[in-house]
Amino acid sequence: MNGGAGSGDDFDFTSPQTLTFNAGGTSQEVIVDFNNDNVYEGSETINFHIQNPSNASVDAANDDHVVTITDDEGKPTIQFAAANTNDSEATTPHVINVTLSGPAEAAVSADIVMQSSAGTAMAGTDFTAFAPHTVNFAALDVSEDLSIVIANDTIDEANETINIEISSGTISSNAQAGSQQVHAHTINDNDDPPEINFALGLSSQIEDNANKDIVVDLNHASSSAITVDYRLRVTGGAGTATAATDYTFTAGTLSFAAGELSKTFQVSVIEDTIAEGDETVIWNY
Fold first, then answer.
1. ∠ CA(254), CA(259), CA(262), 5° rounding?
2. Which domain holds residue 120?
3. Cis link prior to 53 (omega < 30° from 0)?
4. What gap in Å lies between CA 250 and CA 264, rounded to an integer?
5. pLDDT score of 140 more than 90
6. Considering its fold, how many domains does the chain have in total?
7. Which of 33, 65, 199, 246 is the most buried (most CB within 10 A)?
C-alpha cells in the first residue's frame, strides 16, 4: 500500500490485512477510516495491492486499486489581519500581521509590495525602503509578521502613511487571495512644532553706515513652511536709539521654507558726528 495520503494523518488502516473468503464466498470488503481534518491538502490517494493468494490466483490486470480522498477544505485565503494600523514614529520596527484563513499541508508564500499609490511617507526618509518582501508560511502555519523600520526623525511633520499590498500574482498555488489585500499604516509624528528664537539675545554694530544682520532660528526643522512677523518692540519700548536718526528699519515677515532653519533681516545703522554713547534697538516677533 502506498500513495499520497498518509496513514495515521489522512486515514487509519493497518497494513497488511488478510481477507478470508469462506467456501463459496465471492466478495469481501476492506474498511478504511478517513480522518476529516481542517487542513487544505488537495486530493490524495491510497493505493491497495492484492498479493499472496491461497487456493486462488491473482488477476494481474486488477490486482491494484486506487482510492482518491477528495479534500473538502478550499484553498486557504491569504490576507492582512487588519486594513489599517497606526503607531508613533518612535515605535520601530512596526509589525504588520499577515494571516491564512486555515492551515495548508504544504508551505505557502506571497510577496508584499508597495502599492502604486504608496502613501505620503517617503521610502528612505521616513522608513527603510524594502524590495518585495516574501512572507513564508510553513506547513500548518496560519500567521506571519512583516516588519517595517520607521525613521524616528526630529522633523515636525504631518502624520504620514505607508500603503502596501499582497501581490496576487505571487501567491503560491495552494492558497488564494483573501478579502483584505491592502494595508495602510499611519506613522504618527512625535515632534513638537519648532520654536522660533533670535540666534543671539544681544549683538552690536559700529556706527558706520553698515547693515546689521539679525538672525532668527528654528530649533528644529519642519516639513511645512513657517512664517513669522518681526517688528520693533512695542511693549516696553524699542530701545534708546531713534529711528531714521540712528538707524533705518522696516518691519516685515520672515518665511522659512520646509526644512529651513535660519533666516535674517537687516537694520541699517546711520553714522553721525554726535557724541551720544551706545544706544539700543529692540525687536520682537
1. 40
2. 77-188
3. no
4. 13
5. yes
6. 3
7. 246
